[in-house]
Amino acid sequence: MSRFYISYKNIEVFAGVADIIVITLSSILGVELYQYLWFGEGAAFETSLGVGLSQALLYTYVASSRGLYRLPVLLAPSRYLARIFTTWAIVVLFVAIFLVFLRGDAVLPRGAMAAAAVLQISLLLVTRWLAEKISRSLMARGGLAGRKVVTIGEPSELMRLSTAVLFRYFGLNEIARVSLSTANGASSNDVLVDLDRAIHEARERGVDEFILALRWNSRELLETARERLRASPLPARLLPDYTIRSVLGRRLLSTNGPGLALEIQRAPLTQTEQAVKRALDIVCSGFGVILLSPLFLIIAVMIKLDSKGPVIFKQRRNGFNARQFYIYKFRSMTVQEDGDKIVQAQRNDKRVTRVGQFLRQSSMDELPQLFNVLKGDMSLVGPRPHALAHDNEYKVLIAKYAFRHHVKPGITGWAQVNGLRGETGRLEQMVERVKLDLWYVNHWSIALDINIIIRTCFEVLRHKAY
Length: 466
Known about the structure:
Strand order of the largest sheet: 4-3-5-6-7
Distance between the termini: 52 Å
């Protein structure tokens, strides 16, 4: 049976929603009970609902801004009772004064507001007690999920930063920990090797970001780590070092949490932008597969009748964050190279079959990559993925070549609609292609993707590949 997880941030949202419900219902019940017991009749439901909802929303906003929904507070509410009570009392008093100045007792009798207030604070405390029990239970059975991170740091800092502290105060789930070689006698190459190991761990284990635990006065080490981590598309944050945490104290840490971390590298696309881009990929590639399925069948038959071999050609490529995947194409050649040395197709290449020549000229051999897009290995638009042999060659020859992997590779891209489609026989051509790919990574927008897709249709009709 799969385990049910609640994210670190969602537990805070649930606690806030619970307070909104409790305060609103307490207001309604308190007013109704007072009116019934004192006057023998009910109160106007709309009035008590409006007042209660106003108090609930205002209290939740103020409490959230003061960090009262952070996990450390939920786990130990007794330490923060004074702050919780003070926040609630100020909100209730503010709303009460506003109502008095607005319409006096015509809105709600003072006795009714007092009854509602007593019920509110009582149930708020009960809710906090339940939140503590639920949060501790979730933590005990591993039901809370934080952002998956690789922690990179100096030994002295890592010793004072346990995985429990990372999760409890920062919402971070440490997947791997890499200690940098900073002892006497260690060279800068040793540090680079450690950083490369951290990048490899992050890539293989699918983490969300890097966390740096370094002394803030270690300027040279910070610059080295920052520069090396640029090879990865993952965001990186620098935590307060032990000295700063000591000055601030645990109390401040517990309520401000991740806000104290410094962002030293931002992901190329935000989570919202990634979701929008993925939605466009799924809709367009799904529609394309359905619409072109008869054509797929016809091409498959033609390939089988023309030459021996599989219909689909598969080859390893580096994708997002340099993770390998198999790219799909209709087979257009008599060979199926996927080794350390691959020769790019050239004009009048004898390895190209008769059907393959037509498929390559019309770019129909690329159509199976719609399935790569549906799988999530590729996007409709992005830097074109190259064979592993070419990647290994060009990342040595071209600076910033690895930055192309900061987004998913695409069926088409900015370089392709700007004349760099097909073979790149000369190094200068690849340099120019990389320059255009990096421009795309740094200037992505959904409008740019749509523009490239439309331009690709005309580019395919105008210029034939080989």
